[in-house]
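Holo prediction — S-adenosyl-L-homocysteine.
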Amino acid sequence: MALSRLAIEGIGMTSQRTRDRMILRLREQGIQNEALLAVMRKLPRHLFMDQALATRSYEDTALPIGHGQTISQPYIVARMTELLLASEHPLEKVLEVGTGSGYQAAILGKLIAKVYSVERIQALHKQARALLDELAYRNIRTSLSDGSWGLAYEAPFDGIIVTAAPAEIPQALLEQLAVGARLIIPTGKQGEVQVLKVVTRTNETDYQEQVIESVQFVPLVRSERL
Ligand code: SAH
């Protein structure tokens, strides 16, 4: 598997030049965080996709990763990460809900000391874990669980990023934010307009909400029981 992946590098579509073009596009789209752009410039996004789609990896589009799920377009991944990094609260430990391919987690893993990522579909969880191991990430903990409950035993988090959309923001995620920390989350029903929000915990009991832009995400699926 590792070999055939490496072989893809030869195609050219997945080369450094293609990633450089992606970075130029992200800059044109308003992404400014240099540390983030440097990470995205290096990280081989195509490794996180099915080989059949590898040549399309750097297009500015969401692509299927199996099980009815999608990896977000590079712009949205960059935007959400930039919003997280803009936090005034120091970012030592963050939670991602919706591991999917592991691409977003891998970006976070290069920028933040401790990353926790949860996924509810076992096959995706396993595949992402295997790839993150192959890429030698030691600071990303992945687990198979329903992220609408957050990850209580590791809380509080210095930031939380959710890559699937609930109709309403789950209470547990708000409660697991450290004071001063922010939650980056798309919300809205499927088929209706969804919006990306930044919710900052201003003190023990108060939260401030900011609407960023309209987005389209797969649903955050809640399990019936825990
Ligand atoms: N961040 C991912 C994007 C994955 S798409 C990446 O970089 O590839 C969203 C993911 O959220 C899907 O894999 C989906 O299975 C997962 N998901 C949906 N509801 C969830 C829940 N309640 N808990 C954990 N993961 C969930």
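READOUT: DSSP finds seven helices and nine strands in the chain.
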